[in-house]
Design goal:
Layout: E1 29-34, H1 45-52, E2 56-60, H2 67-71, E3 77-81, E4 88-89, E5 100-106, H3 109-118, H4 120-123, E6 127-129, H5 151-162, H6 172-186, H7 188-195
Parallel strand pairs: 1-2, 1-5, 3-5, 3-6, 4-6
Organism: Pseudomonas cedrina subsp. cedrina
EC number: 2.5.1.25
Keywords: S-adenosyl-L-methionine, Transferase, tRNA processing
Length: about 200
């Protein structure tokens, strides 16, 4: 029998994170496109980001039939947060800048690339990236490359750059509690043996 689950954060009610989830305003609109394989993941950080940001939307799927509507949001210019040779590093807004609709694919690198392949409108968006050097706090798995961040970390870092000096650090509080809970559940000895000599970034 499955354990009772919080309807909002989808965590077991005994480990509900809602008390730690902030309610942050942002000039940037964040659109999270989540691969279905991520929905049931214990560390669903895209959901945490969507819950913590008032100006965010989470859409689950592989082919997004209404993508044109989602991307053509009046008052925003859509940009895809995803690596590419011609991707522009994010910079702080100037007062006259139109805010971004920051589109963030959520999934493994392979699944995220599949989302781009299946949704040509998504793949055609101008791309933006974060400066290298971000250190992930995601201590439960090894990063595929230096600077690889979880979804909520990438969004937090992006907003910190775009909307400086506003702090979006509170977005990471439920994420950090989630990581601590996972480590506690596996036991410190197993964590050290499996992950103690690894670090992300």
């Amino acid at each position: 029998m499955s354990r009772p689950q919080c309807a909002r954060c989808h965590r077991p009610t005994s480990h509900c994170l809602c008390a730690l989830i902030p309610s942050l305003d942002s000039r940037t609109r964040v659109l999270l496109l989540q691969h279905p394989s991520e929905v049931g993941h214990a560390l669903n950080t895209a959901r945490l980001a969507a819950l913590g940001l008032n100006n965010a939307q989470l859409v689950v799927g592989e082919v997004f039939e209404d993508l044109a509507t989602l991307l053509n949001l009046p008052g925003y210019q859509a940009r895809l947060l995803f690596p590419a040779d011609d991707a522009q590093p994010l910079q702080a807004y100037a007062p006259e800048d139109q805010p971004l609709l920051l589109v963030v694919p959520d999934g493994t690198w392979r699944k995220a690339r599949k989302l781009l392949h299946l949704n040509p409108l998504l793949a055609a968006l101008p791309r933006v990236t974060l400066d290298d050097g971000g250190i992930s706090r995601y201590r439960l798995r090894k990063a595929p490359s230096a600077g690889a961040l979880s979804t909520v970390e990438a969004i937090t870092q992006a907003l910190q750059v775009l909307e400086a000096p506003t702090s979006f650090e509170p977005l990471l509080k439920p994420f950090e509690a989630l990581i601590e809970g996972q480590i506690a559940a596996m036991g410190q000895e197993i964590f050290q043996r499996n992950h103690g000599d690894e670090h992300l970034g």
